[in-house]
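Writing this down once: the sequence line spells out the residues, with the fold written below as integer tokens. This is how one looks:
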Amino acid sequence: MNPDIQLYNNAQASTDQEICNLLATTICNSELMEAENKIWHGHPVWFLDGNPIVGYSKQKAGIRLMFWSGADFEEEGLHIKGEKFKDASIFYNQISEINTSDVKRWIKKSIAIQWDYKNIVKRKGVLERLK
């Protein structure tokens, strides 16, 4: 894991820090263990071929775990925020709320189902499906 991600996690309040550490460990020990990971737009994000796949951030509602292409996962546990993009997310406020089996399943889907966010600016906001 990128040391900057650990610094991000360590900067969180105690409960949020536990959540962030569990999410980071689950993501790093999944099929994304070789993926590029860094702080991007202020929070931890994992990339495949320069395309953002999964990340988490501290928000008012809790720690938000977001999958950039999650709207197409057809998963009840993930909530679709808008219609323009294909992201979906879930919020956690306690470590006990995290079902790592769900997170691992969503990570597998994030590899199989991808929209091209890497080139969204070049395409003037238009998303194209990669996988």
In short: Strands lie at 36-40, 43-48, 51-59, 62-67, 79-80, 88-92. Helices lie at 3-10, 14-28, 100-112. The two ends are 26 Å apart (CA to CA).
